[in-house]
Amino acid sequence: MQLKEIMAHRHTKESYFEVNDLKQLMCLNIGISTILECLRIAEIQGAVPEIDRGWWVDAFFASELKNTTSIEDFLKGDLYGLL
Predict the structure, then answer these.
(1) What is the mean pLDDT of residues 37-45?
(2) Which helix (H) or strand (E) holds 65?
(3) CA-to-CA distance for 48 and 62, rounded, in angstroms?
(4) What SS3 state is found at 19?
(5) pLDDT above 70 covers what percent of the chain?
(6) Do the beta carbons of residue 40 and residue 77 sit within 8 Å?
(7) Which residues have CB under 8 Å from 48's CB, separation 6+?
(8) What is the pLDDT at residue 82?
(9) Cβ atoms within 10 A of the Cβ of 74, count?
(10) Partners of 4 in the beta sheet?
(11) Mean pLDDT across the stretch 32-37?
């Protein structure tokens, strides 16, 4: 597994993990923003312990999430403006 960086939308850089199978027949890229979204949903659903709000704010502004949703929507779990 490697942490890499690519150009994302709006000409900004997005970090992602590149995961290859042992024979390198398949490659999966998972963006840091996607991992943070999944972790936030897991926290809201009680699957992981509560994470400090300050950590979430720092992670939000360090990621591409700041370009796709508001911090308020992210913190309440409305990642796609549906709530």
Answers:
(1) 90
(2) none
(3) 22
(4) strand
(5) 75
(6) yes
(7) 39, 42
(8) 54
(9) 21
(10) 16
(11) 87
Q: Please, are residues 1 and 17 in contact by the beta-carbon 8 Å criterion?
A: yes
CA atoms of 1 and 16, how far apart (whole Å): 10
Token output for 7: 């150009």
State both tokens at 13. 């850089």
Q: Answer yes or no: are the C-beta atoms of 28 and 19 closer than 8 Å.
A: yes
Q: Are 61 and 69 in contact, with CB atoms under 8 Å apart?
A: no
Please tell me the predicted confidence (pLDDT) of residue 52: 95
What six digits make up the tokens of 55? 């950590």
Q: Given its phi and psi angles, is residue 20 left (phi above 0), alpha (psi -120 to 50 degrees) or beta? A: beta
Average pLDDT over the chain, rounded to an integer: 79
User: Which regions of 8-51 does DSSP assign to beta strands (E)?
Assistant: 13-20, 27-31
Q: What is the dihedral of CA 5, 57, 38, 52, to 10 degrees?
A: 130
User: What region does 36 belong to: left with phi over 0, alpha with psi -120 to 50, or beta?
Assistant: alpha
